[in-house]
Amino acid sequence: MSKKYAPFETEPTLLYGKDTFKIVAGKTYTNKDEKFCIGLKSNGFPTNSYLIFPPQFNLNLLQILLGESDSRDDEIMKFIKIIKEENEKK
Questions:
Q1: Is residue 76's pLDDT more than 90?
Q2: Average pLDDT value for residue range 2-22
Q3: What is the structure's pLDDT at 5?
Q4: Rg of the chain, C-alpha, whole Å
Q5: Greatest extent of the chain over all pairs of C-alpha atoms, in Å
Q6: Which residue in 31, 19, 20, 12 sits closest to 75, CA to CA?
Q7: Beta pairing partners, 14
Q8: Cα angle: 11, vertex 51, 90; to 5 degrees
Q9: How many CB atoms are located within 10 Å of the residue 75 CB?
């Protein structure tokens, strides 16, 4: 596991950021079945520690973040598209 980006394989994509926390998405080591996961990084967490949201919440969380003042809507839309494409395959 990369200590620099733990638990993500590479640097995660910033989706939403405030002064004390960030919400990011990226490929993880822990769940190979999922295309990506969403994590919360807080200034109060130890280095490289994230709260990972359950995959069932990903679409709802992304939809909630979409359009917020500090969100990166272009990045959020990319991840929503991934989820919708996966759901169409099922």
A1: yes
A2: 85
A3: 64
A4: 13
A5: 39
A6: 12
A7: 24
A8: 80
A9: 17
pTM of the model: 0.86
90 has pLDDT over 90: no
3-state SS record for 17-78: ECCCEEEEEECECCCCCCCCEEEEEECCCCCCCCEECCHHHHHHHHHHHCCCCCECHHHHHH
Give the other-Cβ count within 10 Å of 37's Cβ: 22
Which pLDDT value is given to residue 25? 95
| Other CB atoms within 10 A of residue 2 CB | 12
Contact 38, 24 (CB under 8 A): yes
Note whether 29 and 10 are within 8 A (CB).
no
DSSP one-letter code for 8: B
- Pick the closest to residue 31 from 56, 13, 49, 11 (CA basis): 56
